[in-house]
Amino acid sequence: MRVLYSFPHKLGADRICYTAWQQVRGLASAGVDVLLFPGVLARPVPDSVEVHPTLARGKLRIPYKLVGKLRALALHDKIVARRLEKLAGQVDIVHVWPCAALETIMTAKRLGIPTVLERPNAHTRFCYEVVAAECKRVGIGTPHGDYQASNAVLDREEAEFDACDFLLCASEFAARSFLDRGFPEAKILRHQYGFDESEYFPEAVLRAPGKKFTALFVGVDAVRKGLHLATEAWLGSPAAKDGTFFIAGELTQEYKERFAKDLSHPSIVQLGHSRDVPRLMQSADILLMPSIEEGFALVCAEAIGTGCVPLTSNACTEMCRHMENALVHSIGDVATLRRHITDLHDRPELLTRLRAGALNSRAELTWTAAGRLLFRAYEQALRGPDRVERSAFRTASSVDVEVRVKESSRC
């Protein structure tokens, strides 16, 4: 199988750039012949991957700030589409990323090559609406970064949604956001992301008895990731009296001012941006991630890889299984999250059992496993929409993916 993989950003940098880099490495390890078109290559890829940067030549790069981000993405799309024209008969499938895909998709259609569009998040319109509503509810005027609504981005991405053959969704939550807007089940392919087991692994020994109870939050988009919900639940639990809650990630000035009282509590420590997240997870008992929207909660997979127990919303249920390797609450249910924190603070035997469950499930969530699942998704795409199977997700959720369902069981 030969895949043309188009990614318009700095492959191997942070966030989705890291995700795409790991995805390419996972595909290579699964035996896929990858023809890679990154905007810029920021980290090396396996020797078997053929690389053709579109927005860089040697050390020279086309900066987004010079031409504008959307123009740069459109340029990448145009370059890849032209290269694809010359590759007729040499490519089996085309894998594209949002906002830089429409011309490539249309070219692939003319050539009869199936296209799969990566969805690192839920439907864009849904994301805008949910984040805007939560910002309004808590008194934040400006959504973070990419979650500031843009008609130009929305129009381009919705055109891509319609034009592509398949949507690659890494979570049932993301898939549901498309199904709810009328997209057919046969257009959606499931896969997953993962964690790097060379970076995220448990400590050699269990934590010593009597060690201070520790919680961790990792994220850059505080409202979308529900940090304010986490701090409210933490401060209402007995853990705030003798434990520590570490926050790893940059917060906007507006967010820090809005929640200054909570964030200034002596049990809460703001670390800012941290490059030592694996060590933080190794030393933490629980990860608090009450997201209101997710494409795939990568930090939950990383936490599971270290034995740090996720306490998360039901936007993250592919990997987080209630009372098996995590505790799951309905989105926005602070009372249940508070009870979950209290239970794990007061019941060390429950924490130990869930930690063991997390470590038992870690092998399902590596990038190597993700590469094999993506390969299976490609195989389904090549068989056609009538043969798409819904069972591509490896893990089963113990909580329904509907946004406001009640928690299925109590601790």
How is this fold's topology laid out?
Layout: E1 2-11, H1 16-29, E2 33-41, E3 50-51, E4 56-57, E5 60-61, H2 64-67, H3 69-85, E6 93-96, H4 102-111, E7 115-119, H5 124-138, H6 151-163, E8 166-169, H7 172-179, E9 188-190, E10 214-218, H8 222-225, H9 227-235, H10 239-242, E11 244-248, H11 253-258, H12 260-263, E12 268-272, H13 277-283, E13 286-289, H14 298-306, E14 309-313, E15 327-329, H15 334-346, H16 348-361, H17 367-383
Parallel strand pairs: 1-2, 1-6, 2-3, 6-7, 7-8, 8-9, 10-11, 10-13, 11-12, 13-14, 14-15
Antiparallel strand pairs: 4-5
Can you describe what's shown?
The strands form three sheets. A seven-stranded parallel beta sheet has the order 3-2-1-6-7-8-9, sandwiched between helices. Strands 12-11-10-13-14-15 form a six-stranded parallel beta sheet, sandwiched between helices. A two-stranded antiparallel sheet has the order 4-5. It is globular. The longest helix has 17 residues, at 69-85. Helix content is 41%, strand content 17%. The model is unreliable at 391-411 (pLDDT under 50). The chain is of the alpha/beta class and 411 residues long. The protein is built from 17 helices and 15 strands. It has two domains: 2-195 and 366-392, 3-Layer(aba) Sandwich (Rossmann fold); 214-363, Glycogen Phosphorylase B (Rossmann fold), CATH 3.40.50.2000.
